[in-house]
Amino acid sequence: MQYLTQENTDDLNFIRQVLGKSGFPKIQNIIRLHSGSRSLAYYADDYIVRFPKAEIIWQTMKREKNIIDMVYPHLAPAFANKIHKIDLIECEYPFSVSKRFYGKICDGRPKSEYATLYQNLTSRQQVKLARDLALFFNLMHKIDYKNLNIPEPNEAIDNWDITLKNDFNFEKVQNSLLAYDIDLNKYKVRYPNMTIALCHNDLSGSNILLNPEKQDVLSGIIDFGNTVVMPKHEDFFPLYKISRKLAVDTLIEYNKITSSPIELKQIDFMVLSYIGYGLAQSKDGSSPYFLKLLQPFLEE
Question: How far apart are CA 286 and CA 42, in angstroms?
Fold first, then answer.
């Protein structure tokens, strides 16, 4: 097997030929999409095709498909038309194919054809989104993962609990936050909920698709490549990248339906530790990325 290179990435005729040789239906329209460093993505009529950039990424795609096929029955019918199911085509240039979801990401990019802002949703849409995400988390966390034989990751998986890093120094992190009048000790929980569960682990703005024209604003949940068994409270961390309000609202709704509630302080402690660690690592104790995450706490 081969993998796309920079030379053929923008050659849409070449991509069309690759799809045709694989037995893919004849494509009328093909559009190159903005994508990350791991794969190259295209709209192909009503489908999305993604070409991995390397063998290890292809193996990760195989893991993702395996996981989606296992968890999908547990998420349906509530999310039957909103889970990003994929098929894999092994050919000269392997790729994944999935039904095209008509939605926009909400990762903080300016409003555009491909992106929307959480802050621009109506209050009713924000409430509905929080309830849907809470239900999604609850269904994921209730899955008996021990009987699913979840495959081990092919690559390093994000771990949002920065306190587990060997070089984590609470005093340094605490001092970096005290510079902004935030006392990390106030967020410590005496009896944290450390329940282990199957977690999506990457429900950030790039993996939540929204249709701001509809009251039922959530149109898709994608990218199960980072799914892993871990303490379930960590699943809420990526929502902070979108909005702390969304994370808090989702947790409130989650605690209404779960038999194992989580204190908000526990998640705030994890996020603030992450922020404080990042600030401590920066040369001048500041960083636009970490300060943006910190801003909602400063506004309390």
Answer: 37
Q: Which of 10, 17, 58, 1 is nearest to 34 (CA)?
A: 10
Q: Tokens 């990350």 map to which residue?
A: 36
Give, in degrees to the nearest 5, the angle at Cα 68 between 42 and 2. Answer: 45
Which amino acid type is present at position 139? L
DSSP secondary-structure letter at 145?
G
Indicate the helix (H) or strand (E) that contains 61.
helix 55-75
- Which are the contacts of 157, defined by CB distance < 8 A and separation ≥ 6? 201, 226, 228
For 199, the enclosing helix (H) or strand (E) is strand 196-199
- Closest residue by Cα to residue 222 from 113, 108, 88, 100: 100
pLDDT at 155: 84
- Confidence at residue 97, expressed as pLDDT on a 0 to 100 scale: 95
Residue 212 contacts residue 104 (beta carbons within 8 Å): yes
Q: 48 near 105, Cβ under 8 Å?
A: no
According to the 3-state scheme, what is the secondary structure of 92-120? CCCEEEEECCCCEECCCCCCCCCECCHHH
The pLDDT confidence band at residue 11, using thresholds 50, 70 and 90, is: very high
Q: Using an 8 Å Cβ cutoff, are 281 and 167 in contact?
A: no
